[in-house]
Amino acid sequence: MIASDTRLTVVPTPIPGESGPGYLMRAFSINGQGWSRDQFRVSGFSIAAVVHGDLAGPVRAYLGCEGVPDCLVSPVVTGTRVALFGEELHRDDWTSRQRRWCPDCWRGDLSAAGGQRRAYWGIYRRPWWDVTAISACPTHRVRLAAHYPDCGEGVSWHYGSLTRCRNGHDLLRCEAVALDADDCRADAYLAGRLGGAPRVACDALDGLTLVDAVAAMERLGAAWLDENAGMARLRAELGRGALMNAGHRVAADLPRHAVSLLDRVRAGTDGRRRGWGSSTPTAGCMPGSAPCRRALWHPRYARPSPATCARACSSRPASHSKVCPGPRRSD
């Protein structure tokens, strides 16, 4: 237990929708206290545990509060999954090390304070900034920042302060990198489901968990851009965001878009079906259910729901699968 004389003097008011770990970091910054793994370790706590949502002990010890404020949003992290805002994410889509932020969101926080002396007290972290599948702020259409441009060092949860990197540089001075609206469409969908932006409806994805929705957008995007290249190569060359944006464009128009999607797949594979209904596995672009394959290859016949199509595309490719000939005519 921390001694009372080391307890933080100022207890900031929690902001509705604020990240739980970010609230504790904001409290340290307001009190002019350093934030580091070593300091937490001496006090008997772990920054990694705090970032994973284990806040009760540190909040009680540092702030003297019994219980974490209800308006804060903290993740529940397990071995393979992360629960946030009632949604489920894959553990790989959540970062507990890199600390990203939206420069324009923080400028908005400062403006909202109206130039008051304590304006910096209102700067806070959004929980969805830690979702690695999101690379941009859809509200301001800017890329999420991850490092201070002068020193180039990535900003980590383990050191620094809310608005300063490990080397003491002011993160509020970072310039936002503007993006086109079409480059933020997947980010807008994901942030909308996580309470960070207005909800964007997409019939093909809304019925899926966020784990499957992310996978579906990536796989559909890979098929649309270059079926032969494979997921790893496309990620390296184009970036994950480009794959997901392309996939969201396809998903937003399923099942009607299935016709043009398969035309592109056929053109890119010399007319062979390959992963879209053959025994040749591909790098993450093969629908996993026979109903989806039949619907995609024979769009003039009865199709499953858009959610069924997207759910099939989010499945991992099977190592062995028979050719799906499509539904037979009834006449």
Summarize the structure.
The chain has 331 residues and is mainly alpha-helical.
Task: Give a description of the structure.
InterPro entries: TniQ (IPR009492). Residues 308-331 are annotated as: Disordered. This is TniQ domain-containing protein. Residues 83-144 form the TniQ domain. The longest helix is centred in the middle third of the chain and has 17 residues, at 210-226. The protein is mainly alpha-helical and 331 residues long. The strands form three sheets. The protein has a three-stranded antiparallel β-sheet with strand order 2-3-4, with no helix packed on it. A two-stranded antiparallel sheet has the order 1-7. Helices cover 35% and strands 5% of the residues. The chain has helices at 20-30, 37-42, 47-51, 56-63, 103-112, 185-193, 203-206, 210-226, 231-238, 240-251, 258-268, 290-297, 306-313; strands spanning 35-36, 76-77, 81-84, 87-90, 136-137, 142-143, 159-160. The model is unreliable at 276-304 and 315-331 (pLDDT under 50). The protein has two domains: 4-173, no CATH class; 201-313, no CATH class.
